[in-house]
Amino acid sequence: MKKREVCISGIGMITPLGTGCQKFWGNLLAGKTAIRSTNIFKFPVDPEETALHMAAPIDFEPVPGLDDSLPKDLYWGDRLLCHATQMAIDDAKIESLPLDTAVIIGAGASSALNIEEFESQLALDISKNRNITKVPQGMASSEKVLANRLGLSGPKMMIATACSSSSLALGYAYDLVSTGECDCAIAGCADTLCQLTHSGFYGLRSIDPDRCKPFDQNRRGISIGESAVVLILEPSEKVRQRKKEAYCTLEGYAANCDAERMTSPDETGEVLLRLMQKALKNASVVPEDVGYICAHGTGTIVNDITEAKAIQQLFRLNSTAPPVSSIKGAVGHCMAGAGILNCATASLALKYGILPPNTGLEKQDKDCKMNILSKSTKTNCKVAIANAFAFGGNNVCTVFKKWEKEEHRNE
Amino acid sequence: MNDAIAITGMGVVSSIGTTVEAFTKNIKENHSGLTHLNRFNTSPFNISHSFEIPNFKLEGKKSQELLRINKNAQYTIAAARDALRQSGYPIEVNPYEVGLVISSSFLDFALVTKYLTDVLKSHLKDYRPLQFPNTVPNAVSAHTAIELKIKGPNVTVINKHNGAFSAIEYGINMLHTGQAKMVLVGGVDLFSYEAFLYFQQLGRIAGIKGPEIHIPFSKERNGFIMGEGCGVVALEKTEDARKREASIIAEIRSTSSIYFPCPITEYLSSDMPGTELIYNRLLSKANLTKEEVNAFFSCANSSVDIDAWEDEAIFSYFGKDLPVAAFSSFIGEASDASMLHLIAACVCLKDNFLFPVLGYSGNPEMRSHILQKNKNFDILKNVIISRLGLGGSYSVFLLSRPKI
Predict the structure, then answer these.
(1) Report field, pTM of the whole predicted structure over 0.90
(2) Shortest CA distance to B278 belongs to which of B394, B381, B169, B172?
(3) Which positions of A are annotated as active-site residues?
């Protein structure tokens, strides 16, 4: 099948490290972390149980002009998504989106906050024998909210693969643009902190009572973060026509499944190895081309070792092995939004020629033998990959290439 | 679409049968799955019927194991297992070549609410963290992949009421882009109190504004009765299926979807484009004329607006002679389990017959040719099947009898 070259022409982001690419990127490169003790979950205060309270919340004030135009009862996650989308459209400098623009959104628990509120209310309604409160009607409808707001008539869909949802949403959006189904796609995800997710990981003893430290010898689990990230995908040719520089091109992706257990990966690393191999093949690049790996790196013992095993097998550990970093020590694990946040990070790294550090790393785990970046590092790498793995063994790897400036294209 | 897609396997869990054989027999004998509502108490709403599945048990699993697998995942595993078996696809040779796409827009809503209620009420003192993985939207597809050892791309698609058809389009994309050689595509929905409340509050449930009946296109219709179930089909490129000499049940010759701005709790909108566009595109992709279409499987679900709208759309484009059926009269409005509509259409193609709209005895307001009893054909070749989603999407597929 003949495919068009697809690029990322705009990024909108609301992250625990700040709103907008510049703030996020500056703070990430500076090695800052947004993980802290918070009372956002309203769980009982127990000083001994720090894992109950450690997280990476965003600090976002809605932009008044835009926010006033949104429905008052819009979910918090969808509200964030609308803001991030507008940032991405502005960033791409698109005057008016094509009518057939696709909206493909990774499904997260952003509506869980509303469901939580509903559950509390429902329990009260039943106990007091009164009329049942309104069921949250907008749940799992983020793509429709966005498409309605922007008046779009392109394909719209939500994709759910837990923590790799947004990477796969980006992959499907890429398919739609590259095959000519549409001329533009909005791919994104908003996943916000909520009791459902936090209680789940807390109960599974997967939350680091301190801050998460991916690939560190003393890591003890994840820290949960939240984010809203949106990428605009267009055929490169269209972007060149309007004399705009894109962040990078999206060359391909692959997805597969461990099919082993719900909450832990295939520990041999074979499934992840095959995943990255297929992604590189789909993107027509070889391992030697890869200059940066934005790892999934959650900070749990088994996940990090498994990812490291797969990276070691594919790239070998020598002086030419690509640098690796996980950003979760800085922003936490943003759940369904984690994948596309990694993709945005890889895009920014290619655009600015700097690789972000593996924040929180103090002593590298000897079982995670990789070229892990302890500080931000200049690079001239041309190809970067971003990993995202999830509950149920749903894995996605995405491949990006540096954007070729017009004057260098024929060199 | 460049290449036709072959359906090489089917599996069902429905209120009219949990094997394709029982499902087929009940369709031919015009037995509906309507039953007394037993799943939860709806007496405050004066509603007493549903199309729920009684006493389903996933075979081959111990009771203790079943506690860890959501009910909707159990439906899906059973249906997917049957579809895979019927396809004869040698998954063990390369499980990475097999993909799985499931639509499950309403999740296991009851399980999510139970989990959350326990967390909130007990302040984290008395809840079951091991149920947490079952609250994630992709729990069904994950359980199914684990059970059947499917290692290719695994996706859960959400598009309320049109999720099953979106899943098929996603699955076809997987085949065309080379992500999978074979893909199991399913749609599942579990009847729950929370989902019932959702539609009751939208004013969509039959019995609120009139008699509690589910008869698409009828004069008395006033909403739907809810159902549940799961349908799974095995899809391959026709050329690949032929190469391995698989038995092809039907071919998806073309698909066409339109999307339009629409409130998230509505099906229809004034911004909706004309259906002529979508039918033209469907037939043109399949290289067929409208005269070559033998039947239309409508998405009518006993709603006042939806049924009237699609009757008019079909009549305006195809005229008054094209036979129209509505499978929801057998299984109720089963949301993403509407994959069962597609499987029912395959059953008809295979055995050259059409089922009627159960209970329908004519309505002067309807202008298309709505069937009131079974209709047999010498040969049923091409049929259209449709689905309308909440929040602005309408999809039509063209299914054909496979060429010998």
Answers:
(1) yes
(2) B394
(3) 163, 296, 333
Give the bridge partners for A7, in sequence order.
Answer: A234, A249
Query: Which amino acid, B146?
Result: I
Of A105, A246, A268, the closest CA to residue A188 belongs to A105
| Distances B113 to A77, A120, A359, B192, B357 between C-alpha atoms, Å | 19, 10, 36, 10, 36
- In whole angstroms, give the CA distance from residue B146 to residue B17: 25
In Å, what is the CA distance from B90 to each residue of A86, B7, B149, B241? 47, 16, 12, 12
Contact B249, B346 (CB under 8 A): yes
Question: Which class for A32: exposed (0-12), middle (13-18), buried (19 or more C-beta within 10 A)?
Answer: middle
A15 touches chain B (CB under 8 A): no
Please give the Cα distance from A109 to B187 (Å, whole number): 21
Selected from 3.10.350.10, 1.20.120.530, 1.20.120.1200, 3.40.47.10, the CATH number assigned to the domain covering B254-400 reads 3.40.47.10
CB contact under 8 A, A138 and B127: no
- Counting Cα atoms < 13 Å in the Cβ hemisphere of B294 gives 18
The pLDDT tens digits of the residues spanning B313-372 come to 999 999 999 999 999 999 999 999 999 999 999 999 999 999 999 999 999 999 999 999
pLDDT in tens, B215-227: 999 999 999 999 9
Query: What ipTM was assigned to the predicted interfaces of this complex?
Result: 0.95
Angle formed by the axes of helices A142-150 and A76-92, nearest 10°: 50
* Model confidence pLDDT, tens digit, residues A18-38: 999 999 999 999 999 999 999
Q: Do A257 and B123 touch (CB under 8 A)?
A: no
Q: What share of chain A is helix, strand, coil (3-state, %, to 5)?
A: 35, 20, 40
Task: Read off φ and ψ for residue B30, nearest 5 degrees.
Answer: 60, 40
Beta carbons of A160 and B136 less than 8 Å apart? yes
Find the CB nearest B132 among A138, A148, A204: A204
Span B5-243 CATH architecture = 3-Layer(aba) Sandwich (3.40)
Instruction: Kindly determine whether residue B119 and residue A261, on different chains, have CB atoms separated by under 8 Å.
Output: no
- Fold adopted by A7-400: Peroxisomal Thiolase; Chain A, domain 1 (3.40.47)
Give start and end residues of each alpha helix (H) in A49-141.
Answer: 64-68, 76-92, 112-127
Token pair listed for B96:
């990475």
Q: Judge whether B40 is closer than 8 Å to chain A, CB to CB.
A: no
A185 touches chain B (CB under 8 A): no
DSSP H/E element including A21: helix A21-29
Window 199-258 of B: residues touching A by CB (8 A cutoff) are: 201-202, 257-258
Alpha carbons A15 and B336: distance in angstroms, whole number: 34
* B96 in reach of chain A (CB within 8 A): yes
